[in-house]
Amino acid sequence: MKRSGLIHALKEKAGLSRKDAEKVVDTFFGALKETLAKGDRVEIRGFGSFTIKHYKPYLGRNPKTGEQIQVTSKKLPFFKVGKELKESVDKP
Questions:
Q1: Cβ within 8 Å of residue 8, ≥6 positions away
Q2: How far is it, in rounded angstroms, from Cα 5 to Cα 3?
Q3: CATH number for the domain that contains residue 70
Q4: pTM summary value
Q5: One digit per residue, pLDDT tens: the chain, 92 residues?
Q6: Domain that residue 10 falls in
Q7: I want to staple 21 with a disulfide (CB 3.0 to 4.6 A). Which of 9, 10, 35, 69 is the partner?
Q8: Distances (CA, A) of 8 to 12, 15, 31, 85
């Protein structure tokens, strides 16, 4: 599902206007981004949690040339699925 599909589903199920549904989606994801950017954790019970993983610098290899390159440290968002979501997706 894309962002537009999420907006449409919210509009239909909650009886909101498209503009209001779009504002809700933008507000939710904006708050999620801001929280993760500060390094905090976001947990949605029954769905999962978003955290930031810190990766140390390492020596990598350019796949095209084979040359070794230094990869700098980085922080990336990480999603861990919740138990209820995992179980609902895995139903036969």
A1: 18, 21
A2: 5
A3: 4.10.520.10
A4: 0.77
A5: 999 999 999 999 999 999 999 999 999 999 999 999 999 999 999 999 999 999 999 999 999 999 999 999 999 999 999 999 999 998 87
A6: 3-89
A7: 10
A8: 6, 10, 20, 22
